[in-house]
Amino acid sequence: MDKFDINSLGIVLALVGAVLAALLGGIGSAIGVGMTGQAAAGVVSENPPLFGKVLILQLLPGTQGIYGLLIAFTMSIDDFVISYFTAGSMCRRFSLEEGIVFDPPYTEVTLKDDEQGDPLISERLCIMKGLLAPGQYDEALGILVKVGEVLKKELAGMGLTLIDFKIEVGYDENGKMYVVDEITPDIWRVRDEQGNIPNQIDCAKLILEKI
């Protein structure tokens, strides 16, 4: 197979991937909305005051379709991470105690590479590998900080302290950057008023109780 054929194959595979992302995301979203809708209808018929809470659960599956559509025309690059306190793997990697405050917050970017354990990657390497154009690294970190400020404020109102979180950032064919991730307990780590760090499911329950 000559060079032209290899390049053509790459374009075809990229287009197939985009179509599948949009199609499967839409199908999964439709199935999820239908399932939660049936369950929500039963709950509300027995306890109407719960309408607001089940509505949120009804909306969550719908985001999968939007996420799939975004992936269809954006390229997800890396995980952009921001930490307000030391915790978890950071403490192990850098021999730090838990709970040290970062002021200003500490940011880092990891490369999506399961074989290498998602290593940290610098702006220079992102540009060398063709993952980001000059200026996009800092732009993505700026988006990360802005999302963090909103999250901190909203979670603090529920008695939760944001420890750290990560999001995926991508860009379209014009270089415009987007958050291509869901803002759910799956991306963050928080501490409750008792000093406990709840898992994703418990955190979701805590939030629903406080809405």
In words, what does this structure look like?
The protein has 211 residues and is α+β, with helices and mostly antiparallel strands. It has seven helices and five strands. The chain is globular and about 60 Å long.
Question: Briefly, what is this?
Answer:
This protein has 211 residues and is an alpha+beta fold. It has helices at 3-46, 51-59, 62-73, 89-94, 123-128, 136-156, 200-210, and strands at 75-85, 101-111, 161-171, 177-179, 188-191.
N-to-C SSE series? Answer: HHHEHEHHEEEH
The number of E-state strands comes to 5
Strand content: 15-25%
Mean pLDDT figure? 78
Helix fraction by DSSP (H/I, runs of at least 4): 40-55%
What is the CA-CA span between the terminal residues?
59 Å
Rounded Rg? 20 Å
Shape category: globular
Major sheet details: 5 strands, antiparallel
| Number of helices in the DSSP assignment | 7
What descriptive keywords fit this protein?
19% strand; 5 strands; alpha+beta; 211 residues; single chain; 5-stranded antiparallel sheet; 7 helices
Write the layout of secondary structure elements.
Blueprint: H1 3-46, H2 51-59, H3 62-73, E1 75-85, H4 89-94, E2 101-111, H5 123-128, H6 136-156, E3 161-171, E4 177-179, E5 188-191, H7 200-210
Antiparallel strand pairs: 1-2, 1-3, 3-4, 3-5
